[in-house]
Amino acid sequence: MLYIITALSNHKILKHGGYNMEFKSYEYVQAIKEERSFSKAAKKLFISQPSLSQYISRLEEQVGVTLFDRSTSPVNLTYEGELYLEAMAQIMEIQKSMQKKFDDISDMKIGRLNIGLTPSKADTVLPMVLPEFRKQYPNIELTLTEAPSSRLETMLERGEVDICLMNLPIKSRNIEYEEITKENILLCVPPNFPENLVHDGKNGKYVKISELVDQPFVFLHPDQRIRQIGDALFQADEVKPKVAIETGSIQTSLLLTDAGLGCSFVPETTLKYVNLSNEPKCYKIDENGLDWTLVIAYKEGSYRTKAVQAFTQTLKSIIEK
Length: 321
Fold this sequence. Notes:
Elements: H1 2-9, H2 12-35, H3 38-45, H4 49-63, E1 68-69, E2 76-77, H5 79-106, E3 111-117, H6 119-123, H7 125-136, E4 140-146, H8 149-158, E5 163-167, E6 175-189, E7 199-201, E8 204-207, E9 216-220, H9 225-236, E10 242-247, H10 250-258, E11 264-267, E12 281-285, E13 291-299, H11 306-320
Parallel strand pairs: 3-4, 3-5, 8-12, 9-10
Antiparallel strand pairs: 1-2, 5-13, 6-11, 6-12, 6-13, 7-8
Helix pairs in contact: 2-3, 2-4, 2-5, 3-4, 7-11
């Protein structure tokens, strides 16, 4: 059997002819076996006997063995011929199974999707999107990886994840993205926050970054996007913030703010998903406010599977609602 399979791996028909040629070879050899005659098999196959004989001779030359004992009447398969049919049956079954899986993937009956996302998206966006995606595509296997934005960019470039849910800006030039939505970033303040630092504007109450120099802050870690945005704000106003606590979770920062330990930068969506004893006081940052853009990111030039396309479409439809 090993010899036959090795021979078949070098078989020109298998290499270049595709499934139809493999089936033709199997069908011809099987017909001769059943009819035990080249002439009867040719009639059954609706081809001439010389054409069938030439085909089998070429096939034997290509696989390197004799498939039929022509010295007997009726014709019999050789031992190698029996192994050939057995091996071909297995190969064709594997091909049929493979094609069925390809068809299922094409029809979104099965598939795999590796999603990278920041912790804040795991807490907010994902609970909105996954139930609907699961409902529509129950057999798509999902793998979720939570990491800071900088790490996600690296994973995307290396092909360790298919897509990423993250916020702009993206530093890597090897990443493409689609904008999904914008949302406000607010400054949530502790209960004892001085009221004189809150201003009335055309679009609601706001605070000025330049006036927060004496206020303690609950910051995220430096490799997280919202921390980087906050640092840039302070640098622009040449203000050094007073960092009281660092944490890796936006929800934790909000809970600590609610406990009176400092101000925190919080995306507006997060406020809907955190259970607090009291509704936090949150204000726009500067009079024009501050927002960031949620994107779905891909490795530049990468093939976007139907699973990727379906997830993107589901995400967009949910956000639009």
